[in-house]
UniProtKB/TrEMBL annotation:
Keyword Thylakoid: no
Name of one Pfam family that matches: FtsX
Lineage: Bacteria, Pseudomonadati, Bacteroidota, Cytophagia, Cytophagales
Annotated ranges, domain MacB-like periplasmic core: 20-200, 451-624
Sequence intervals crossing the membrane: 21-41, 278-300, 336-356, 368-396, 416-440, 671-690, 726-742, 754-777
Domain of life per record: Bacteria
Location(s) in or outside the cell: Cell membrane
One cellular-component annotation, GO: plasma membrane
Name of the protein described by the UniProt record: ABC transporter permease
Molecular function in Gene Ontology: transmembrane transporter activity
Protein's membrane topology: Multi-pass membrane protein
Residue ranges of every copy of the ABC3 transporter permease C-terminal domain listed in the record: 284-401, 674-787
Length: 794
């Protein structure tokens, strides 16, 4: 029986090639997009699941509650995890990561700067699962002066030779022996590194509860109730931290984050992760694309029902049951879906490199062949096949044989349902179009928004490993001799990434108070180099050396936070309020107010800042002319090597840091745009096929109208009118849904664009134009046809 169904289904596909082509093409696009989006979603859901103890590992997150704000940090104090392990037996293990940032390693003549270098407890490989290529995970970081390299880092220095036992040095002449080489950290990890160092003596002894600068993880029993441990944190505060923070009105508690939920659910200050909302969005897009392709099938199947009505009538007269007819039509739709799935696998293999480029992923084709994904593909076939074939099967199998065999049958019974489906198709397409537009409006808004400083053509160079800075003035003078170098300044950090907070004693309206502020250290040329403005008071000056101890700048956010009506002259104690038995910290006064500028990306609000003056700092900012930029950079590099012959010359442009902050959202925006366009394409394919069958059914009517004197334009308008109405009906459905969805999405951004009426108007007009462009070909073709041919049988 099944063989018979398949044979008839195959013949039916070959009999009407145009209909079959449109259906298979629509299904192929829908299934291909569905598979690609599901690959993206499954990759997002796979983060950190390769660790054997992944369901037992928790990251400790710090919640620092100040009187006027709450800070959520992924960093903790060094003794925290160690104390928890000592005090609570159910804490099975812990590991801490001490950031070393960017480190210059050298081996003989080979020198490289490596990013993402951490010092870690020797327990790191007991907690996290990393496959060792060389070395023993149990002893790799047990001894001081040890380093474990990733395979990529090891190959930089040692090529294909064994790295185990080799020695690397840093610029501060510290030596590290390679005690292990591991496979590169999997891309689907929320935490990556290029090398791990054993803890230094100072890091091993670190016991201060005042500084938050490391990342801590615990291993707890399976299915552990984290509230048990979280309930102990207030006691921990009272015991170890109250003496430090209570007088400032600061409360500290912690939360335990399951390792496997960090990537998609963690939203901490300054942290860049994935977002579970995009998993939902892309899953919904995949579902809707499959639904649109299924709607196409249903529409075209019911539209051509007149052609198959006599077939149904004859089958019923010959004794065929309705259930058998339904099975036949469902077999046809499933067969088309299988053909589409086969073509989709080929397309996915061809498109995957491009998709990886667009999405920023590194998904391999073998992911498609995993049993789980093959099961998903089977579900897609069953879902799409049965959804797309269900209504035609019910509708076509319900024909009365006497009616259809007398020739009095017409297919208007499915007309309302077809129209409803077209409205749904274009409502979905319009929602996708509007959402894509607003996503790009937001990205452009963030890219173009005034950051409070000029980031264009600013080159930054980091001093590394406490390099001697006594030669900076020589370098500065050499560089300024080039007319293409406009100005040079130094600061404690790049302007695009000012992190951390420091406690200051600040004069408030109620007296001196200890409060946390973002600190920044700059020289007297910094504000001018960066194009920042002093809105009140003055800038630092090299002619006033006392500014290094007696003067500070604040930003407008700090003035607002303190409620100062006149900020100039307000006292700031560098180091907090004096404690009993301790010398008073240095005191300074506010000499100027700087216009607010963004210290990080626009995902973070502007924070109150206190800016200190020092003549020489760790990051050099060089403003260059846009003309001859390459030659200018080459000149800077030459002078750097002359000044620091034993140091690598590595630089970044400030706008590169800015762009990288929005890279993830831009990649998602590209994905959304591509699939929005394909959604509209699927809808247009269905509309084109529907227009073709509609004009075929009305060919004699058109002939009569032309004989009676109707013009080509009037016939085109007649045929386009019905489809125009359907698209217009989709507008009041799509607009509220799109507005509500994007309004919710924009709430995630502290600084966001407005959703203007113009977006909806233009999107609706564009959808209408796409509709007309789709149906006009068939309409014109029918309108200019010779009426004699269509009326010849009358």
């Amino acid at each position: 029986m099944l063989r018979n169904y398949l044979t008839i289904a195959w013949r039916s596909i070959l009999k009407d090639k145009f209909y079959s082509l449109i259906n298979i093409l629509g299904l192929t696009i829908g299934v291909t997009c569905g598979l690609l989006l599901l690959l993206y979603v499954t990759d997002e859901l796979s983060f950190d699941r390769h660790h054997e103890k992944g369901d037992q590992i928790y990251r400790i997150v710090s919640y620092i509650t100040e009187p006027d704000k709450i800070n959520k940090w992924q960093s903790t104090q060094p003794p925290l995890a160690k104390s928890l392990k000592q005090d609570y037996p159910f804490v099975q293990n812990y590991v801490r990561f001490f950031p070393n940032g960017r480190v210059a390693f050298r081996k003989g003549e080979k020198r490289f700067y490596e990013e993402d270098i951490y010092a870690a407890d020797s327990t790191v490989f007991d907690v996290f699962t990393h496959k060792f290529i060389e070395g023993d995970p149990k002893t790799a970081l047990a001894r001081p002066g040890s380093v474990v390299l990733t395979e990529k880092t090891a190959r930089k220095f040692f090529g294909e030779s064994p790295a185990l036992g080799q020695t690397l040095q840093t610029n501060d002449t510290t030596s590290y022996q390679v005690t292990g080489v591991i496979e590169n950290v999997p891309r689907n990890s929320h935490f990556t590194f290029n090398a791990l160092l054993s803890l230094s003596p100072n890091e091993r002894k670190a016991d201060g509860w005042g500084g938050f600068y490391i990342v801590s993880y615990l291993v707890l029993p399976k299915n552990f109730d984290t509230k048990i441990l979280e309930s102990k944190f207030p006691q921990l505060y009272d015991k170890n931290m109250a003496s430090i923070f209570k007088r400032m009105g600061i409360k500290i508690t912690y939360q335990l984050q399951p390792l496997t939920s960090i990537h998609l659910y963690s939203k901490l200050d300054g942290e860049a992760n994935g977002d579970i909302s995009y998993v939902y969005i892309f899953s919904a897009v995949a579902f809707f694309m499959l639904l649109l392709a299924s709607i196409n099938y249903m529409n075209l199947a019911t539209a051509r029902s007149a052609k198959r009505s006599k077939e149904v009538g004859l089958r019923k007269v010959m004794g065929s049951l309705r259930s058998a007819l339904m099975a036949q039509f469902l077999t046809e739709s499933v067969l088309m879906t299988v053909l589409a799935l086969t073509a989709s696998f080929v397309l996915v293999a061809l498109l995957l490199p491009f998709f990886n480029t667009v999405s920023g992923k590194e998904i391999q084709f073998r992911e498609l062949l995993r049993p789980t994904f093959l099961l998903i593909a089977l579900v897609i076939v069953v879902f799409t096949g049965f959804v797309s074939g269900s209504y035609p099967a019910f509708y076509l199998s319900s024909f009365e044989p006497a009616t259809v065999l007398k020739g009095s049958f017409n297919s208007k019974g499915g007309s309302f349902f077809r129209k409803t489906l077209v409205v749904v198709q274009f409502a979905i397409s319009l929602i996708m179009l509007i959402c894509t537009w607003i996503v790009y409006e937001q990205l452009n808004y963030m890219r173009d928004k005034d950051m409070g400083y000029d980031r264009e053509q600013v080159l930054t160079i980091d001093y590394q490993d406490r390099q001697p800075r006594d030669r900076y003035n020589r370098l500065r003078n050499d560089l300024l001799a080039n007319p293409n170098v406009r100005s040079i300044a130094t600061a404690s950090s790049p302007t695009s990434n000012i992190g951390g907070r420091t406690i200051f004693g600040v004069e408030s309206n109620a007296g001196l108070k200890e409060m946390g502020f973002k600190p920044m250290v700059i020289d007297h040329d910094f504000l001018q180099t960066m194009g920042m403005k002093v809105v009140s008071g003055r800038d630092f000056s090299d002619k006033i050396p006392a500014d290094t101890a007696n003067g500070v700048l604040v930003n407008q956010a700090a003035v607002k936070r303190m409620g100062w009506k006149e900020p100039l002259g307000k006292k700031v104690l560098l180091g907090g309020l004096p404690q009993a038995g301790q010398p008073a910290p240095p005191a300074a006064k506010v000499v100027g107010v700087v216009k607010d500028f963004h210290q990080q990306s626009l995902y973070m609000p502007i924070e109150p800042m206190i800016i200190l003056y020092r003549p020489n700092n760790g990051v050099i900012h060089i403003k260059i002319d846009a003309k001859n930029a390459d030659k200018t950079v080459e000149f800077i590099g030459r002078k750097w090597r002359e000044t620091y012959p034993d140091r690598l010359f590595e630089y970044r442009f400030l706008d590169q840091d800015f762009e990288s902050a929005y890279k993830a959202d831009e990649l998602r925006g590209r994905i959304f745009t591509a699939f929005s366009a394909l959604t509209i394409l699927i809808a247009c394919l269905g509309l084109f096929g529907l227009a073709t069958f509609t004009t075929e059914q009305r060919v004699k009517e058109i002939g009569v109208r032309k004989v009676m004197g109707a013009s080509v334009s009037s016939v085109v308008l007649l045929l386009s009118k019905d489809f125009t109405k359907l698209v217009l009906f989709s507008f009041p459905i799509a607009i509220p849904i799109a507005w509500y969805s994007m309004d919710r999405w924009l709430q995630h951004f502290p600084y966001k664009t407005d959703i203007g009426v113009g977006i909806f108007v233009v999107a609706c007009l564009l959808t209408l134009l796409i509709c007309w462009a789709t149906v006009v070909y068939q309409s014109v073709k029918a309108a200019i046809a010779n009426p004699v041919k269509s009326l010849r049988s009358e």
